């Protein structure tokens, strides 16, 4: 039986509700906090919001749309701001995006209200549409938009560029995403359910997975990036750590079986799920953060050379 520490990989043990620190702002970038990207009458502007960090002295930088982790149930875009600032300091704009949340009674009985798939991914598509149409206002390059995420955010980032329905609903296309960076995620819901059930029991798996996706085979298939392998055309940097290695390896094997060539994979065998997140977010020098930055730079189209 697998240990719980291997299974509960989407639970980041970091404080909830940490506010964006104004004191950390640098002359290297401009930071715009708590921007509502969806403002219809029934919008949840406390969740459907983003923080935007724009590097100074860089003309039309590429944009990385980033979705943090939290089991689809307690994602907080403010928690991703250390990483966002470090990437922005390298000359890449970053939008840390929040989304509406699923119930998480498996963690806290009070967390009993929320949404299910596909509402999370619809929010991410809305955020991209908001940013795409305001590229000139904020000063980044709409032709060099990247999407990435950590943990549950990695799943959403991959799904956005593989299932075109959600961007199409916003008048956009997955072809408008220059590259995707899923870090420490899962990409096949059926496989994720099986691992949770084997390690923690079917009741736990039913509670967690059912609250986020539902429990039917059709729901599992609909929410899995592995379902849409034939439609993938976006360059991808795929990163795992010890807890998500098997999930990522399954995805990697499926990509190789399809002979998909436009992806790179890095397995970080020396760090756990939480340790990699802390390395990306807090380390003054992170080779894994540098890999992300290098990927954006290499894959971006340089308008000067066209």
From TrEMBL:
Domain of life the protein comes from: Bacteria
Highest classification ranks of the organism: Bacteria, Pseudomonadati, Bacteroidota, Cytophagia, Cytophagales
SUPFAM superfamilies: alpha/beta-Hydrolases (SSF53474)
Keywords per UniProt: Hydrolase, Signal
Signal peptide (residue range): 1-21
Occurrences of domain BD-FAE-like (ranges): 50-240
InterPro entries: AB_hydrolase_fold, BD-FAE-like_dom, GDXG_lipolytic_enzyme
Source species: Dawidia soli
Molecular-function GO terms, alphabetical: hydrolase activity
Protein name (record): Alpha/beta hydrolase
């Amino acid at each position: 039986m697998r240990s719980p520490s291997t299974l509960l990989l989407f639970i980041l043990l970091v404080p909830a509700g940490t506010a964006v620190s104004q004191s950390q702002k640098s002359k290297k970038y401009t930071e715009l906090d708590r921007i509502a990207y969806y403002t219809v009458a029934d919008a949840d502007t406390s969740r459907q919001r983003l923080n935007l960090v724009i590097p100074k002295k860089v003309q039309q930088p590429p944009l990385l749309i980033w979705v943090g982790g939290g089991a689809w149930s307690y994602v907080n875009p403010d928690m991703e701001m250390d990483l966002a600032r470090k990437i922005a300091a390298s000359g890449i704009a970053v939008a840390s995006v929040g989304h509406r949340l699923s119930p998480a009674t498996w963690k806290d009985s009070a967390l009993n209200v929320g949404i299910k798939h596909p509402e999370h991914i619809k929010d991410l598509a809305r955020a991209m549409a908001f940013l795409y149409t305001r590229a000139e206002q904020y000063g980044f390059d709409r032709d060099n938009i990247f999407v990435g995420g950590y943990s549950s955010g990695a799943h959403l980032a991959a799904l956005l560029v593989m299932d075109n329905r959600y961007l199409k609903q916003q008048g956009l296309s997955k072809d408008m995403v220059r590259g995707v960076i899923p870090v420490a995620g899962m990409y096949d819901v059926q496989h994720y359910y099986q691992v949770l059930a084997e390690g923690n029991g079917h009741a736990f798996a039913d509670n967690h997975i059912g609250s986020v996706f539902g429990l039917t085979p059709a729901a599992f298939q609909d929410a899995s990036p592995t379902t849409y392998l034939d439609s993938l055309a976006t360059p991808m940097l795929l990163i795992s750590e010890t807890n998500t290695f098997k999930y990522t390896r399954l995805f990697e094997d499926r990509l190789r079986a399809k002979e998909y060539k436009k992806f790179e994979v890095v397995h970080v065998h020396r760090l756990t799920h939480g340790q990699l997140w802390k390395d990306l977010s807090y380390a003054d020098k992170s080779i894994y953060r540098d890999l992300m930055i290098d990927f954006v730079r290499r894959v971006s189209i340089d308008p000067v050379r066209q």
